[in-house]
Amino acid sequence: MHNRRTVLAAIVGAASSVLTLSACGGESSTGSSKGGTIGLAMPTQASERWITDGKSLVKNLQGNGYKAKLVYGENDPATQVSQIENLITQGVSALIIAAIDNKSLSKVLQKAADAKIPVISYDRLILGTENVTYYASFDNEQVGRLQARYIIDELGLEKGKGPFNIELFAGASDDNNTKYFFDGALHLLQPFLDSNKLVVQSGQTALKQITTEHWDGGLAQKRMNSILATTYKSRTVDAVLSPYDGMSIGVLAALKTYGYGSVSKPLPVITGQDAELASVKSIIAGQQSQTVYKDTRQLAEVAASMVDDVLNGRKPQLNDTRTYDNGAKVVPAYLLQPISVDKTNYDSVLVAGGYYTDAELK
Question: Which residue in 251, 256, 255, 249 sits closest to 274, CA to CA?
């Protein structure tokens, strides 16, 4: 497999022109055209993860003989809708879409259906429309369960230890995955919350209270600062359920501002997701505790294979045809399995798997 960071370096080296095109609704176009052109609509270049996904999708589609047009909506739903409209007008053979707002695409996807363009919902399930052909993602509830399991094990809750103070964070309210991550985590954490072995001192436990728009690390830092200032003057935080690495880094910054990270005031258990470089380095340094690794190279391969199968009259490989009801239909899906990563196994999972090199983690 190609080295992920080498890919990112190549992207960054050419980023200015791509960023300018994406921001104004244009696209980058690469590959041979013998199999047709596939439109790729990704959410943002502000996250390392989505840059990698875009590049991996292009590579896999090219390997299958397709040309790819890649656009980034920069977290603006209206921009993404406009970009998809442009791709439809340009006559793409299929669309792979990671939605910014999972409820904003019904009208534009009707245009895709009218043009007989199949749509693969990528990572984030698109809601409220029948015009989604297949869904490629990870087992999103399992992501939350892995984060919760890590907290339970680190605190020794099943051994009767406690009570401990925990604060809960969730992702963007317009991302369907947010609910699955949170539900998966609460499935394991709720018994300990009910028995008061885990206590949310802020009282902020409902999903609508803890969402973080655009999965923004700065907003997570701001909220954590507020919680610490109002609730933890004479208490300490023992664990933070954070669903994403970028948010975890923001949470860490707030905690450090309030003196956490010293011998007398150790950092709490802090979870994460996506195995982003900054967070893996933080884990190695003993700051962030855990992340959930999702090999997006495999996800891109699944999505590209789905497109190839659909365009050639084949039924793609699926492993979930019941779970993902988008409000208009149950979308047949292929789900990959995530892996919990911490200081004990990052080398065997991330380095041995070719995701990072030892040098990149120094």
Answer: 249
Interatomic CA distance for residues 234 and 220, integer angstroms: 22
**Percentage of residues in the chain having pLDDT higher than 90:** 88
pLDDT number for residue 35: 80
Crossing angle of helices 4-13 and 48-63, in 10° steps, is: 100
Tokens in use for 292?
Answer: 């959930």
Residues 6 or more apart from 268 whose CB is under 8 A from it? 236, 237, 238, 239, 240, 255, 260
pLDDT at 47: 87
Compute the average pLDDT of residues 4-27: 36
Across-strand partners of 154? none
Calculate the alpha carbon distances from 155 to 120, 160, 232, 341 in Å: 40, 10, 19, 17
pLDDT bucket at 6, cuts 50 / 70 / 90? very low
What rounded mean pLDDT belongs to the chain? 91
| Separation between Cα atoms, residue 238 and residue 199, nearest integer Å | 10
Q: Would you call 6 exposed, middle or buried from its count of C-beta atoms within 10 A (0-12, 13-18, 19+)?
A: exposed
358 φ, ψ (degrees, to nearest 5): -60, -40
Q: 220-250, pLDDT tens digit by residue?
A: 999 999 999 999 999 999 999 999 999 999 9
pLDDT in the model for residue 48: 85
Question: Where are the alpha helices (H) located in the chain, listed in sequence order?
Answer: 4-13, 15-23, 48-63, 77-89, 106-114, 140-155, 176-194, 207-210, 217-231, 245-257, 277-284, 296-311, 346
Q: Which two tokens stand for residue 11?
A: 């992207």
DSSP 85-108: HHHHHTT-SEEEE--SSTTS-HHH
